[in-house]
Specification:
The protein is mainly β and 564 residues long. The chain has seven helices and 32 strands.
């Protein structure tokens, strides 16, 4: 029978907090294997060490309850009915040259994020198994509800030039999420206003129509420890409110809880859907979706498959602190096998220098010459539908691009990259299942962090514990620290955003489309996946959290990389 994630978990009433008897039941609504046919998705599940498992980046629920899945490795969006799990999905082919990392659906439009909002419409017969997607050209900027919904999971422009009036990037001014606009399934466009409740563990949310009108609801949510990201995701057709939230401990070894809280139309909390984030779940951008009928779906990428799960519901009583227990533990670096660290040249290093170097890798402008671009067709990767060349370089021969390319197994400084491109090496390599190549240039994730830390030796994600110490809590991170998942991926921490997400610099095949870039993630979702907050031991004793990364947004490296 088709599964619908309805209320079947334990009702915990008349308690001061929720005791956790174990995870609520969840069930697979649709499962995809690795491949390029209509019933599969692109997965790099057999990536080598130091490469994050990569699969579909986003899910979203349409107005009729259908699910849209961004299968970016295969260059398409898959559309399916979760009530008919045996039916093949419809394939909506992305336009050539588009490599999005997020999507949302509004009316008949599919909006994707490719460094900016791009609006698409399906072409061809509605019942055809394969349809095209064409870009809708418009001189009008995207509606605020669209940009605000993208920002829920960190899809926002962080590369704007500073505003001349304030000196802060325009995009960062707009991330002050005291106000959020969403186009809900049940109540149309609404505005959610957030204010603190009881310090850092609670929040009040006032929901009102986008146009003038009476309040739709006043919601209150409080967790055991400290709130991370809080986002109003949707209002269903019954008028129930769905709020994404994170409980992130400030001390101890407990992993965070990442959940969706459901409120009645009158604003009374009814229960939660605990999202099954564990360390074997790969990174994805938009991993939760709410259907018009109030079903909660979770995107789980793991080795060998990508599953859309219906998440079980757990009832709670009004006014109780949400306490889901300790969660499943993330990586403890004390449990990582110790390896002998290589000797590395180290210079005295400040946090500002670390962030400055990282920004230079992300902001460098260079020309893609024919020798760095390579031949067409390019070398295919083993095991999944991708070629060697990073996505952001496609079609850019003899053009200027921004950012050092991701290069599997490559390492070195910005000057080394410039020299390698000048000598005719290929730019980048995203074939993480293949052996590293000697004829390519760029940095992989750990090579980038090693360079930002000023190391003369490349330390992999497995070797990073030998030169760092794990912080007691993710909240203890300062600019220049890192989020490390041994054997998988590492990100350089920049700062906390105004809405309590983690802004990072990373070299990534997925989230950055094959280069070094800035990104924003809900902090709890990273910690729950096994990312450990770590501090490089070679940093000078600088405990200031006030490193002003906003001044570095327009940073230009001293020497630009030039192609011949």
């Amino acid at each position: 029978m088709p599964y619908s994630p309805r209320e079947f978990c334990i009702s915990l009433l008349a308690m001061a907090a929720i005791a956790s008897p174990g995870h609520c039941q969840e069930s697979i609504a649709k499962s995809f294997g690795s491949g390029a046919d209509q019933g599969s998705v692109g997965l790099s599940a057999d990536a080598g060490d130091d490469a994050e498992l990569e699969g579909p980046q986003a899910i979203y629920a349409g107005d009729s309850g259908e699910i849209y899945l961004l299968d970016q490795l295969n260059g398409r969006v898959l559309k399916f009915d979760p009530a008919k799990p045996d039916d093949k999905p419809q394939s909506l082919e992305l336009p050539e040259g588009l490599a999005p990392t997020d999507l949302i659906v509004s009316d008949s439009d599919i909006h994707v994020w490719d460094g900016k909002v791009v609006t698409l419409q399906a072409t061809g017969r509605e019942d055809a198994p394969v349809r095209g997607l064409s870009i809708t050209r418009s001189a009008e900027p995207p509606d605020e509800a669209i940009t605000s919904t993208f920002a829920q999971m960190g899809s926002t422009d962080l590369a704007d030039a500073p505003d001349p009036a304030s000196g802060a990037p325009r995009s960062l001014q707009s991330t002050d999420r005291n106000k959020q606009v969403i186009a809900s399934h049940g109540r149309g466009p609404v505005v959610a206003s957030f204010s603190a409740l009881g310090g850092e563990s609670g929040v009040k949310i006032e929901v009102a129509p986008r146009k003038a009108g009476e309040s739709l609801g006043r919601l209150e949510l409080q967790v055991r420890d400290r709130l991370g990201a809080v986002e109003l995701l949707d209002i269903d057709r019954r008028g129930r409110f769905f709020v994404f939230a994170e409980n992130i401990p400030t001390v101890g070894s407990d992993a965070p809880n990442v959940f969706v809280a459901r409120f009645s139309p009158a604003g009374r909390i009814e229960g939660v859907y605990e999202l099954p984030l564990t360390q074997n779940v790969g990174l994805s951008r938009r991993f939760v979706a709410i259907s018009p009928d109030g079903d909660v779906y979770f995107l789980r990428n793991k080795k060998g498959s990508s599953d859309v799960l219906g998440v079980g519901f757990r009832q709670i009583s009004k006014g109780k602190i949400i306490d889901l227990g300790g969660g499943s533990a993330g990586f403890d670096l004390n449990d990582v096998p110790k390896i002998k660290a290589a000797h590395a040249g180290v210079r005295p290093l400040t946090r500002e220098q670390v962030i400055q170097t990282g920004m230079e890798f992300a902001n460098v402008r260079w020309r893609v010459n024919p020798s760095s671009y390579g031949n067409d067709p390019d070398t295919s990767c083993s095991g999944f539908n991708r070629i060697r060349r990073p996505g952001y370089l496609h079609g850019k021969v003899n053009q200027q691009v921004v950012g050092v390319p991701y290069c599997w197994g490559c390492h070195g400084s910005l000057a080394n990259f410039a020299s390698s491109i000048g000598r005719g090496r290929l730019a980048g390599n995203v074939c993480t299942r293949n052996d590293p190549r000697p004829d390519v240039a760029g940095v992989d994730c750990s090579a980038f962090v090693s360079a930002a830390w000023g190391l003369s030796t490349h330390f992999t994600t497995i070797a990073i514990p030998a030169i760092t110490r794990q912080l007691p809590s993710g909240w203890d991170m300062l600019p220049g620290d890192a989020l490390n998942k041994p054997g998988s991926h590492v990100m350089l921490f920049v700062r906390f955003t105004p809405d309590k997400k983690a802004e990072v610099l990373e070299s990534s095949t997925g989230g950055c489309n094959g280069k070094v870039c800035r990104n924003v993630y809900p902090l709890g979702s990273l910690l729950a996946r096994g990312y450990a907050p770590v501090r490089y031991r070679g940093l000078m004793a600088d405990t200031s959290a006030a490193t002003d990364a906003s001044k570095l947004d327009a940073a230009t490296p001293q020497g630009k990389t030039k192609g011949r």
